[in-house]
Amino acid sequence: MCWKAVTPLPDGSGTLTSGLIGHARTRGDAVALEHSWTVSPAMLNQARFGYSRRALDQSSLQQGGIAIPGLPANSFASVLPIFSVAGFQQIGPTTAANSNFTTSVAEYLDTFSLVRGRHTIKFGVDLRREALDVLNPPNPTGSFAFTAAGTTNSVASLILGQVNAFSIDIQKNVIQERAHIAEFFFGDDWRVTSRLSLNLGTRYTLNFPSTEKHDQGAVLNLNTQILDFPHTARELECCDFGPRIGLAYKLSNSMVLRAGYGMVWFEQSGITTPFTIPQFPFVQTVGQQSPDNVRPAFVLASGPTVRASDPNPNSGLGQGVFGVDRRNGSGYSQQWNFTIQKTIGDNLNFEIGYLGSKNTRLGIPDANLNQLPAEFLSMGPALLQSVANPFAGQIPSNPSLDGATITRQQLLRVFPRFTSVALFRNNVGNSKYNALTAKLEQRLSHDLTFTFAYTLSKLIDDASSVFSQTIFTGPILNNTGAADAFNRHLEKDLSLGDIPRVFSGAWTYQIPRIWKIGGWQIAGFVRVQSGDMVAVSQATNANSNLGFAVQRPNRLRDPNELEGRTVQRYFDTTAFSAAPQFVIGSSSRNPVRGPGLQNADLMLSKTFRVSEHWRVEFRAEVFNVTNTPPLNDPNGSFGSAAFGSITSAGNPRVFEFVAKVHF
């Protein structure tokens, strides 16, 4: 047998870097209706209805008769399984390459407007229904791993059919999630005097807890430690009022003061998805592994023996499961601003202001409530000692938790019969933003118009990313999670999105006519800004077996204080030291400031009139005029060879010529 790499191009070149996806069909539909009714010269009612729908029908490569016996019954049963051969290209499709997915939103908005003297009053209702139908098991016909264990060669293991590890994701039925939102609003634009105007209002939001059409959802009861099958996973809040107030005061004929405050409620999960009930065990992962990494889990010709159990209160034993905090409320955002605008002369405007916001109950990455409590870390290696297992024979789905002995650290966890436990779409994150802004703007005068703006700001949060929104069987733990699930104060830091200084300028100049040449204009754009923050974590998480999602190194000093920085060493990599096992590193979440951005663009254009009805516009554009490399962030994986280096950048200088015909 000849075993060689696949070269997909006709000339024998090219490589495949991942599995192949088969056929996909996407369709989007939208419809909108509007009716305006003029009740009287001072009263108007506007009614709008909208519906949008997007569908994806995707299937991977078919098995072509390669049937493996013993596979549990599942959807997408005819697709090719995944075969992973250690050291070689994966055989089969990518993960999650099979999907029947439909999402839709229906909305009815009715607004009544009334003008009475100095008041313009608006009130109405906004009703929305959101739906998600999804059938998307990541590996519907299984993933089979072949290693050198037992044969000394992974290809030999494949030929002999000796499977080292197997997993399959079971989803037999479509998950059909539904959510309803009702909002009622009232607002009054009140011209108090010729100098003062007020905008007053409020919006009342009802986020009804989401449901699954056939009650395909379950949550771990944290008290009884068995699964409950509720109709909803959250409670309906009664008092989500969002007040709003704004004012504009004319200090003089050339100066205006503006200020405002508003509160906006969003989805129960803290981001833009309203669905809050877990899908496990109606979507679940089962598997088999080699008992000793020498003997195979099974022989391919015989197939796996593992089976998915029907949903029952003990379905989650030995696995990662979700609980919920039913009392956790919807997320909300508070925003405020204060601005002074001054007109100088006839065409120049200057503006200076302060703006801020505070977001509460934001979605965060999954946090493992079954992590070993940090107070036990001082026990050190004793945590890994084997002790008698009081749950022996009770957890057949997980041999490591079902044997006669078990590690001491597992028994010290809050939920010792499970691997990981997280609160599903737990929106407990916070962020705070404050900024000073200044802007100078000139309307067209002497053939020149320009705008210059500067922002000085700070953004702080305790999570710069959110949970996965895909259909999954249990908690997803990765290095975006918390260093200690029971101490979220460790996560508070400058946000990954913090860019403290930003300057931008844009201008357009009409070039005066010279001899017979005229009608040309030149324009430019400049942007200079600080870099964002970079997360640092250890490449090897020595505490992962204790349930910790991430381990950060110890920080010895400020890593940003480095002279002569290069792309090979952008920050002081010696400012960190490895945190050993049983230790939570002292580094903050985002301790490194990445490279800033300096960019300038130019454009030269002219419109040629061909006839009364035909015009041709020509533009010559140069992006990144100075060819300054827009460097991407440095590597933040402590312990990897690339730590501290920058290996990629954005686009270099680009020339673009555009011709557009107007008729």
Question: How would you describe this protein?
Answer:
The structure is a single chain. The protein contains 3 helices and 36 strands. The N and C termini lie far apart (66 Å). It has helices at residues 154-160, 399-402, 408-411, and strands at 23-40, 43-59, 82-85, 99-116, 119-135, 143-146, 162-163, 165-170, 175-191, 196-212, 219-220, 227-228, 240-252, 255-265, 284-289, 298-299, 321-323, 332-344, 348-362, 386-388, 405-407, 421-423, 429-445, 448-461, 493-494, 501-510, 520-529, 533-534, 537-538, 554-555, 576-577, 592-593, 597-609, 615-623, 637-638, 654-662. It is mostly beta strands and 663 residues long. It is globular and about 90 Å long. It has an 18-stranded antiparallel β-sheet that branches. The chain has a 4-stranded mixed β-sheet with strand order 3-6-8-15. A two-stranded antiparallel ribbon has the order 7-16. A hairpin with a 2-residue loop joins strand 13 and strand 14. Helix content is 2%, strand content 44%. The chain has a domain at 1-23 and 43-99 and 137-170 and 282-315.
Short key terms for the protein model shown above:
single chain; 663 residues; mainly beta; 18-stranded antiparallel sheet; four-stranded mixed sheet; 3 helices; 36 strands; globular; disordered N terminus
Which stretches are low in confidence, meaning pLDDT under 50 for 5 or more residues running?
1-19
Q: Class by helix and strand content?
A: mainly beta
**How many individual helices?**
3
Number of strands: 36
Question: Distance between termini?
Answer: 66 Å
